Amino acid sequence: MVCVDLTCVAIRLTPVWVCLIAYCPNGKRPTPLQALVRVMDYGFSVEAFKRKPIVLLTHMFVHANESHLAGNLTSLMATLLEFGGPSVQRNVEEHNVWVSVRRMVGSFAVFIGGGIMGGIGGQLMFNDAQLACRHKRWMSLLSVKGETNGTPLDAVIRRAKSWLERMKYKIDKKRTDSIFMCGASAGICSLAGFNVSYYKRWGTALTMVAPEVIALVCSLLSSQTRLANTAWLPAGEVVGHAAHVGGFTAGVCIGLAWRWFSRVYRNARQRKQRTKKV
């Protein structure tokens, strides 16, 4: 029979409570418009970061609507209960408050660190790749530099086309840099990645991250026709599949690094103990 200590479970789920407080700061459910305004105030975008660097942290806890919040909190609770301890059941049955606090701090660090590094990094790299693919930026610049033959009129036309391409690229990049991101889902994927690499637990990773990888691959394999038909949209997508995969990758790297550090620390302690015995 599973015996649950509600205090320890509540401590472990602290990131969930923080997200809830961030969504309902006054204790009242916000309207859809208020939630979107809060995303614009505290969500991350390249342009917003230039004005307020604090959005690098605050974007980890904002949500656009209630369905977005509910989905993320469900996944977050699953990854938090999977985080730490010899097994998930032992995590749920944990009665030591100090152990719960330590695991809460550790999960918070992975959630925020992996979400920021992997989530933002992955999404920005994906956006830049889409921009380059959409505008064929590098190929067009090389072709302009390489073509030296032709009449003066041809040279003028080539320069005009190059200028137009650069302007289109800058406008598209400006719009892309203004897209707001909510980083909680990337942080959740980071926790799932940490659970895989450090604890060898694949439960949440298979259900959450595998579909994101498939969606990202499909986005990368999109045809030029599709990109041309959506030229009025900024690069990137409403759902940040690249951010999710990036967060997962960052979590895996953090887990591997922590395993290495733990092994080195454990070996050092063992050598020290053997030296004392001698």
TrEMBL record:
Pfam families: Rhomboid. InterPro entries: Peptidase_S54_rhomboid_dom, Rhomboid-like_sf. One of its GO terms (molecular function) is serine-type endopeptidase activity. It is found in: Membrane. Residues 1-18 form the signal peptide. Keywords: Membrane, Signal, Transmembrane, Transmembrane helix. This is Peptidase S54 rhomboid domain-containing protein. It comes from Trypanosoma cruzi (strain CL Brener). The lineage of its organism: Eukaryota, Discoba, Euglenozoa, Kinetoplastea, Metakinetoplastina.
